[in-house]
Amino acid sequence: MKILAFSFVLLSFSFFGVSCDSRTEAEKIVDAAIDAYGGELYEKTAITFDFRGTHYSIFKSPTAFEYSREFTDSTGQVLDILNNGGFTRKVNGVLIDTLTEERIGAFSRSVNSVAYFAFLPYGLNDAAAIKTYLGQTEIKGKKYHLIKVTFQAEGGGDHFEDEFLYWFDLADYRLDYIAYSYHTDGGGVRMREVRADREVGGIRFQDYNNLKASNKETPLDSMQYLYVKGTLEKLSEINLENIRTSDLPENE
Fold this sequence. Notes:
Layout: H1 2-16, H2 22-37, E1 45-51, E2 54-60, E3 65-73, E4 76-83, E5 86-91, E6 94-95, H3 101-118, E7 129-139, E8 142-151, E9 163-169, E10 175-182, E11 188-200, E12 203-212, H4 223-229, E13 233-238, E14 241-247
Antiparallel strand pairs: 1-2, 1-14, 2-3, 3-4, 4-5, 5-6, 7-8, 8-9, 9-10, 10-11, 11-12, 12-13
Helix pairs in contact: 1-4
């Protein structure tokens, strides 16, 4: 099965052609996608939304970022903040300074993951992101640019070993599909398909169906084959609710 899946993807890439200058082509495609989704507004806008009962506030510019989440659990009202200075947690307004490095890492990864996907494709131009153009392929009769993204260890965060695939529509640069392999919490591989999108404050946001393969050791480059074949299982829905945008202060 793995050999068949790999052959299917290679055949698809060979049929539509692969760019010789992969790095340059990948940069051009990602830049065009960012422009299509909001462009410079990403760097001027603070965004808030609700996701699975938790309220998030995020902003990200080339030099600074801050992601926060607020929720209530058995300890009280929790506020987590992740920014250039690191991670902090407050419970009922009181700073918690007894967190272990392991807990800080887990909370940071959780906050960062939600912010990363909510802000796509803007985050693909992070300095640590390594983009590779894999060529053109086809899903359900539509042609896509396929780009692989990995991360440098320095500046790549706790997820630098994760790998991602992004499918951008040839016509309008919409990001219709994402697949990724991850190593935290036992590891695994996922694929996301867009289920809804809308524009808020000039920025386009998307909801996804979150899909998984039956075997968590499935190679990342097999996910397109398995998706087209219809063998991936729907695990959950990724829905952003109550999205709001506001202009950042000039000094941010």
